[in-house]
Write a structure and sequence with these properties.
Length: 303
Amino acid sequence: MEQRSPDLNRYSGDRVASLIREAELALRGRASEAARLEAEMLLGHVMGWSRAGILIHSQERVTGKDRGRFRRLVGLRTRGHPLQYLTHTQEFWSLEFYVNRHTLIPRPESEILVEEGARRVTGSRPIVIDVGTGCGNLAVALARELPGARIYAVDISGEALAVARRNARSHGVGEQIRFLKGDQFAPLAGLGLEGKVDLLVANPPYISTAELAGLPVDVRDHEPRQALVAGRTGEEFYSPLIEGAGRFLKAGGSLIMELGLGRAAGVRRRLEASPAFGKILTVKDGAGIERVAIGARSSRDAG
Ligand SMILES: C[S@@+](CC[C@H](N)C(=O)[O-])C[C@H]1O[C@@H](n2cnc3c(N)ncnc32)[C@H](O)[C@@H]1O
């Protein structure tokens, strides 16, 4: 049997390994499947360590102040606060994004918008619009993929835009993106972009008021309502986006919108009803859900 030093026994409650165990048990209590991973991420956040750092330092003592901070974060997590709002980070498109309670946490399926958008754009100086930019994940990822692009990123939330600006700066694309506050296309008025835009991406709010109650607590009670809820039907944003895309896209330009669960047929009908769009398709995510609708702008006369 391993001999533990008296000193280690005496202080074991202060050490990294036992703090992780303590937190893992508390997090398991709320049925978190990734309790250990979450415990490690929270302590790593407090200590400024990677997960490998947790292993390396496993027998070190954690000071009272850091212990207190860690336990406070674990407590918040057990009460349903999303891990990403506690660590202020979420990976998207292999980039680290700062997030807070004013921004939706980027979801992996939204990477489809970046992938489909980047491959549809031709030309060295494309113009891109991102409506509802949130923490700026789509705009920043597209700026990195399309270094010559000029991107206009709109959001109704000034707090979200502050986060998006921060992310654009930290990923070295601050000069490429202009952030604008306002309702959908309103802040783009007067910029002379009508008929000149190559790509319009949007991950709009798409939850209906009735669906909100059924969302997981982490989402329903913590992510910004105006990022989630569209209105009574959940489809309120799609018609204005299709109409705006008809005005702003140049011939051959693409509109790419994320779809909520079960929204594909309704959105497809709206796209088909618009004379501005010829080719229409939907793309499934990894779970087989039709997640993205794409419309190609037909000739300008068609609008
Ligand atoms: C679903 S989130 C998408 C965030 C981010 N683009 C992403 O893909 O993760 C929707 C965003 O739209 C913004 N929004 C809601 N209503 C808006 C409106 N009327 N005009 C502009 N942005 C709006 C919200 O503040 C939120 O940041």
